[in-house]
Specification:
single chain, 199 residues, alpha+beta, Glutaredoxin, four-stranded mixed β-sheet, globular
């Protein structure tokens, strides 16, 4: 069986724009996905990048054009200047990790719920009440946000180290374990799909 490690930030617009394409291609081929949320603001400087707020204005202007282009191309609602961005990714990431460790439920839907909350619903995913609402809406026990706090924090930190060691530098970032092939960005999903068909 083929496995994909999916590194992401729960506030990444590019992970939001990926939608459920990864999950659909994985389901079709019997591929398993391991979701690895991490702190992008720590990842960027450790891998030669910068958080958006510190980037040159030309990069920021191009980023805005790309967000608008991809939003329109994919037909997804997206506010390019959301009310709650950036926010602390840790609490929502802990919830995703705890839900995944529980072994039940649709983790992809939960991840999309957090991303949609930021980019389409103007919600603060660092707020405990919002986290509980999203867990509940996606079929998870809202109490998992508390129960999984310790394990979430531990794995969240480990995910960052795993990412740096694996050559990850952005979100979304997909690594096919069996081949070691890496794909950065939602605009590389077609290439990832073609690669999966060679395995």
């Amino acid at each position: 069986m083929t496995h994909i490690d999916y590194y992401l930030g729960t506030i990444s617009p590019w992970s939001y724009l990926a939608g459920d394409r990864l999950e659909r291609m994985a389901e079709k081929r019997g591929v398993t996905i391991r979701y690895k949320p991490l702190d992008l603001m720590q990842l960027f400087p450790r891998t030669g990048g910068q958080p958006p707020a510190q980037r040159h204005e030309s990069r920021l202007a191009y980023r805005m054009q790309e967000l608008e282009r991809w939003r329109d191309h994919l037909g997804l609602p997206l506010n390019t200047k959301p009310a709650f961005f950036p926010v602390n990714m840790a609490p929502s990431s802990y919830a995703v990790i705890a839900a995944q460790e529980s072994g039940a439920g649709d983790i992809g839907a939960l991840v999309r719920g957090f991303l949609r909350a930021v980019w389409a619903e103007e919600r603060d995913i660092s707020d405990d009440a919002v986290i509980r609402e999203i867990l509940d809406a996606e079929g998870f026990d809202p109490g998992i946000a508390d129960k999984g706090l310790f394990v979430g924090a531990e794995i969240y930190g480990r995910n960052l180290e795993d990412a740096v060691n694996a050559g990850v530098f952005g979100s979304p970032f997909y690594i096919v374990r069996e081949s070691g092939q890496k794909f950065w960005g939602q605009d590389r999903l077609d290439l990832l799909e073609a690669h999966l068909d060679t395995l």
